[in-house]
Structure formats: structure tokens, C-alpha cells
Amino acid sequence: MDQKTNSLQKKRSSLFSTEKPVNPLIRAYLLIYNGALAVGWTVILYETLKNVLTYRSLKDLRECYGLWKSVEVPLKIYQTAAFMEVLHAALGLVRSNAMIVFIQIISRVFLVWGVVNYISYAQLTPGLLIAVTCWSITEIIRYSYYALNLFNSSPSWLTYCRYTFFIVLYPLGVVGELWTISKGMSSIYSQPHRNHYSILLPNKYNFGLDYFYLLCIVVSAYIFNLIG
Q1: Catalytic residue from among 29, 160, 163, 170
Q2: Which residue has the higher pLDDT, 76 or 195?
Q3: In the chain, what is the straight-line distance between the N-terminal and C-terminal CA atoms, in Å?
């Protein structure tokens, strides 16, 4: 009787299941994508730790000398590659909302390209070290989980890490991001520096942008997101 009941339940679950079989080509692509990013973030974490081990004083740690130079290229590549996840969601390759994924990614990409890469002073802060370390650990876990879960073979300890580590890593990462942005803001607050990083009027496009105030808006968005 139990066997018949179980058999009937399986048939009913398969009949009403909303999951579609994953195309082998799509699965292979997602495996390569997630695997590559897991490896990439491992490289970033390794370079970060290797650089920190060279510090010999609190001053070195306070200004994180050489950190950006060590991680700049892989960080730009693998953080920007996360935009592919928006495309994956939009095309239905994964079950995610494309707009939510975009919102989750854009703040990090902006920090890399619009703050640290654009304002060199923002490279010299422990905030960058905190942010990059938290990002790396989070993404190594996340992409490894995604890759293995394509074959339903994610070990229990990795699943546990995937759904618990963010409780600590997410707020720490936000602290690092805001610290880095504040370093950039303080360094361009004076008018001569602000003019260098801003778009001044008049110009042929009739468009102006005060970069300091743009960063104020970004910080406000962080606060709004945390409160909301």
C-alpha cells in the first residue's frame, strides 16, 4: 500500500511540477560560467591575503598599500562579469528576477569603476580590504554552490555556508563599501579636487555633474536600502 501511495505521489508531483528539464547546453554553459567565477574570486581572495601579509605596520594596514594594484585586473573582470547574471535571468536561464539581480550587482560595479578606479584616494583605505574580502568569500561560496547545484550535488556544508555566512558578510561588506565611498568623498570635497572629478558647465553637451553630490546620492541609496 505504501509503495502504491508513493508511486502515485511521484506521478502527481511530476505532472504538476513547474520545473522544466535543463537543456544540456545551458547546463554546460552555466557550469563553465559559475565555475570560472568561483575560480576568479578565489584568485582575488588569494591576492588580497597575500598583499595583507606584506604589511609591516598599522600605517600599511590603515592605507592598504598595494591592495588595489594586486586585485585591480581580476576584480574588474569578475565583478563586471556578474552583469551576465542579469542576462541569464532575463532569458530565463535561471529562476531570478532580472531587475532585482541588476540592483544587487550595480552597487558593487559602481564601487569598483566609479569610486576606486576613478578616485585614486579611495584605494588607500581598510574599507576596500573589508569589501573585497567579504565579496570574495561570499562569491566563492555562491558560485561554487550554483555550479554543484546544477547537478544536485552540493554538499550540506556548502549549502549551510551559502545560507548562513551572508548574515555576517553582507553587513561587513556594506560597511567596507561605505567606508571606501566616504574616503573618496572626503578626498574630493575641496573645490579644486571636486572640479577635477566633476563635469563642469559650460560645455558643448550642456550637462554638468558634481561628483561629490553624486556620491552623496549613492550613500543615500545605501541607507534607504538598509532601512527598507
Answers
A1: 170
A2: 76
A3: 51
